[in-house]
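note to self — DONT lose this again. spent like an hour looking for the file last time. sequence + predicted structure for the chain T wanted, 119 res
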Amino acid sequence: MSVSSENRTEWVYRIFDRRVISVKAKNEQVRKIAVVDLQTNVPFAIEASKDIFWEAVEVAESYFASLKVYTARDVEGVPPNSVEFFTVLDVDQSMEDFIKAYWLYPKLIKFELVELEPL
């Protein structure tokens, strides 16, 4: 995944979703949070927008998280049978699809945390 300072034009906004997550770790230097999606039980990393009050994010706590999902414009190196997943924007992909694809292509999918509410 990219660092927050990278140009947003390198990313294509895909979907917005609310998920229940559990925070496993956080890195203040890059404003990234390691989480587990409690519906799929799959871990992934999310970037916290600058609007998130960082000090309120507690490790080992669960939250309702509002997330935006982006995919990279440059899909070089992706097998031909997977390119469509990243390039066709009018296909409804589920959040679960993006979470699972993150494990195969972590540099091509970015999750941005835009709102966090305690359970």
